[in-house]
ASIC5 protein
Amino acid sequence: GILEKIRLYLIKKLLPHLEDRRKYHQEFASSTSFHGVHNIVQTQSKTRKVLWLLVVMGCFAIVIWQICSRFIYYFSWPTTTTVVVQYVENVKFPAVTFCNLNRFQAHAVSNLKIVFLIWNIVSGVLHKFAMEGKYAQELNDFLLGNQNFSIKEFTRKNGFYLNSSTLLECEFFGKPCYPQDFEHVFTEYGNCFTFNHNDLPARRVSLSGRGLHLLFDVQQEQFTDGPALGYTDAGITFVIHSPEDLPRFDGLGLLTSVGMHAQVAIRQLKSIIQEYPWGECKPDIKLQYHKIYSTNGCLQECKARYIQDRCGCLPFILPGNGTECDLLKFYNCVYPAIYDIEIKGLCTIGTHNSTCPAPCEETDYPTTVTYSSFGGEKAIKYFSAKLKKSPDYIR
């Protein structure tokens, strides 16, 4: 009770009388440099008072809105995109990875349909697919009777391979190149080969010139395309990428059919993405099996970790040093694990808080591809004599 009396006493002593307060307010409103308030108090006309009051209140509302909008804009972390076009004498030549659209030789096994299904299961770790259930029993019988069957070695031995009979010509800016200049890599297309892979010294080339010139023999008579399983094309698929990055064919691969000449013009596009909250990259992320960070490489390592923890083995098509999964493990464990990864979103890409956010620096090679029929009459005769093949085969 005593404290309350003291508080009331102090309030009464500190607060001026109502009349004094009105006097102070009148003096402030009359002398302030805030022009609108001065006019509201001094003018005698009620209409002018109302008009000035509306003006003052409107200006006050605009000020509040401006202050709030500036705070909102600041905390949205705005960025500016800058595009710089540089004309340079020499650029670092990209890596080019080639695959044959026909994955296996027709004479490899008696039941090639089963091999295609097995490869679908294996390559599903890179690209999700739907396997038809009508082949399940046939596939189960094969797996039980061939438990030591290695799809990795089978693919390496019986898939497309670069040698003197498949790589007929190879030139790099006028200088000859050979099959040993290509690095073997497994992709969803089986055996693929990369020119200018990461282990080689950087090749810097002039902007003009012929670039990389290749002539392939896809050997259609020795390969099968299995149209019943969706393999209806014949030719070469290729992707142009940074030498430090993995080839990614899903949605990015370019195609050239047999009997066609494809000419590819490339540009180099380097993107620098800001870190969060201005952008979506996280500069502290490092990959275990790749020198530079990429979403594709990160996604593969994420899948590899999850599969190795769940199945106790590692698909050979993914990076890592784990024990290779056999066919039964692929069918019974790896394939369901990939399904869980897709459905449950265990390996996500894109945003800063995802498993694999956007890279902070990325080099792409936008392409323009033009096609023409391969060889005129004289060229057909020339290659027919040189390769000892019939004109119809050359076509």
The two ends are 109 Å apart (CA to CA). Residues 46-74 form the longest helix (29 residues).
